[in-house]
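Re: that backbone. Tokens:
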């Protein structure tokens, strides 16, 4: 089991480097649309009738792009907001994909929102409860820790289809609105697939850790 967890960790590190590598590679390729990420996001939103969703410039650094469902705002980092590369357009469109999911009440996104409070508590409290439970040999404490950690793992599992669906919507919108050519579709796919791979790797590692905790708890009983 430890070998599998280390393998998953290695996969996560490789996936993260692949994301940065693909983003940097395709950030050097200017898109034929001659539009920056902010303009692309705005155009897709307007095409979907989401005129109320704002597009703002995030100051949190590269690859901090995200959609805020409460504020109905897409926040784009500087390289994406101002960039007109294949990478910039891909990331901007992906975040719009989340806004479209929100507007259509996409079931997996709604489930993720419902799971977030429990997952947030679980990710913060579970490690302390598990460590304390194993050190003090307190089965009840271990059980609570596993339940909380399970909530965090479930959140990550649900995140996978949400991210893949947002990428699918992004690619479709870019093609349908004529913002990328047939030759540029490959680059968009490379950027979006690399990003999705990081979620796969982190989810796999979390699932393996959960299984390990359960096996340790059973052996102690």
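Recovered sequence:
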């Amino acid at each position: 089991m430890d070998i599998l967890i280390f393998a998953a960790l290695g996969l996560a590190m490789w996936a993260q480097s692949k994301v940065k590598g693909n983003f940097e590679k395709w950030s050097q390729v200017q898109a034929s649309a001659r539009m920056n990420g902010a303009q692309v996001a705005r155009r897709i939103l307007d095409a979907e009738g989401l005129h109320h969703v704002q597009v703002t410039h995030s100051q949190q650094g590269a690859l901090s792009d995200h959609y805020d469902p409460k504020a109905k705002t897409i926040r784009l980092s500087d390289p994406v907001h101002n960039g007109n590369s294949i990478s910039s357009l891909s990331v901007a469109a992906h975040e719009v994909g989340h806004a479209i999911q929100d507007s259509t009440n996409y079931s997996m996104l709604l489930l993720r929102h419902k799971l977030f409070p429990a997952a947030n508590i679980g990710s913060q409290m579970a490690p302390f409860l598990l460590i304390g439970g194993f050190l003090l040999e307190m089965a009840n404490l271990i059980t609570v820790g596993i339940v909380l950690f399970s909530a965090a793992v479930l959140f990550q599992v649900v995140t996978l289809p949400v991210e893949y669906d947002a990428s699918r919507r992004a690619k479709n919108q870019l093609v349908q609105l004529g913002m990328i050519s047939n030759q540029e579709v490959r680059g968009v796919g490379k950027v979006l697939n690399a990003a999705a791979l990081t979620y796969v790797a982190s989810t796999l590692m979390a699932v393996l850790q959960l299984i390990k905790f359960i096996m340790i708890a059973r052996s102690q009983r």
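The mean pLDDT is 89. Residues 167 and 192 are 6 Å apart (CA to CA).
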